[in-house]
Design brief:
It is globular and about 55 Å long. Helix content is 27%, strand content 15%. With 338 residues, it is an alpha/beta fold. A 12-stranded mixed beta sheet has the order 7-8-9-6-5-4-3-2-1-10-11-12, with helices on one face. The longest helix is centred in the middle third of the chain and has 13 residues, at 148-160. The structure holds S-adenosylmethionine and iron/sulfur cluster. Residues 32, 38-39, 77-78, 80, 106-108, 130, 168, 170, 197, 199-200, 202-203, 333-334, 338 line the site of S-adenosylmethionine (SAM).
Amino acid sequence: MQSIPLPTINNPLVDSFQRTHRSLRISVTDRCNIRCQYCMPAGLVQFLPRSQLLTYEQIERLVQALVPVGITRLRLTGGEPLVRAKVETLVKLLSSVPGVESIALTTNAMLLAEQIDELFDAGLRNINISLDTLRDSVFKKLTRRDGLEKVLAGIDAAVKRGLKPKLNAVLLRDINLEDAAELVEFALERQLTIRFIEYMPLDADGSWDGTQMISGDELRSLLKKRFGPMVMLDREDPSRPSTNFSFQNLSGTVGFIDSVSQPFCGACDRLRLTAEGLMRNCLFGKEEWDLRPFLQSEFNPERLVERARECVASKFAAHGIGTPEFVSPERTMHRIGG
Ligand code: SAM
Ligand code: SF4
């Protein structure tokens, strides 16, 4: 991606714990073509009417307003971002905003094989793909849909375009814990990094109670038994959520996002934008800051930045999962943007 770096960032978005905010996760839709148990409910889902989604031009304007205060790393997510028409148009718009450092996409890859050329041509190089199992029956149980072959075709298509997608897996004890080793082998054979994300209390059915979650520690012991010793790598950028390990006897890297057991809130630099234009300062936050009034007929970047500052100023030190006061947020993962 070609970006024109801004020489200086003025008055960056710093919260009361001295965390400077650089990243924005942009949800482009709350819709999805599968129904992962850890994210969406089994039954009917009330999605936002399409007319309520921010347009691509509004998202572009919002990014234009936030880049000068340091928001330069963008990730497009959802719901499933590729179910929204022509996401490559958004990639192109954002790529040409001066100062944008990186644009990434998080996808379930069901539609990636058919969209990879357009996305690549628009400048997208950084893709995270969710892959929780290599078994059809488990995929069906976990996602309540068919389609593992499409996900695998999406991974192949990205690799064929010369990309190195990162794979993300969430393990649930009674469903896909057994898949962990096979997923590592799959990634290593393709020289891809796989990262295991701890299951967080963001599922729509509200059934998280910690017993289905596999902690990073537990998983590392299992993988060490199977693959031999692992060596922790330095975290080049403390704001990145993953702690990566290499294997002593194998070439390749495996990452662990231990969001529940070893939270990394102290280095968090992320803000989130819901598909309808509400800003959130944490996955687990209860409050949302409405940016829509500044994006509608009259674009008001100054007021928008002011509202973003209010959002950042209210950020808590940590998410507090496991503390007696913790309550899961009303919005579940697909409605926030992961
Ligand atoms: N649909 C895309 C996908 O699945 O990659 C993007 C959106 S999804 C909400 C983003 C990421 O959140 C995925 O990697 C998914 O596995 C993860 N995720 C969803 N619910 C989760 C939960 N309860 N705990 C941990 N990770 C979760
Ligand atoms: Fe869809 Fe992603 Fe949620 Fe799975 S995790 S249901 S793919 S939004």
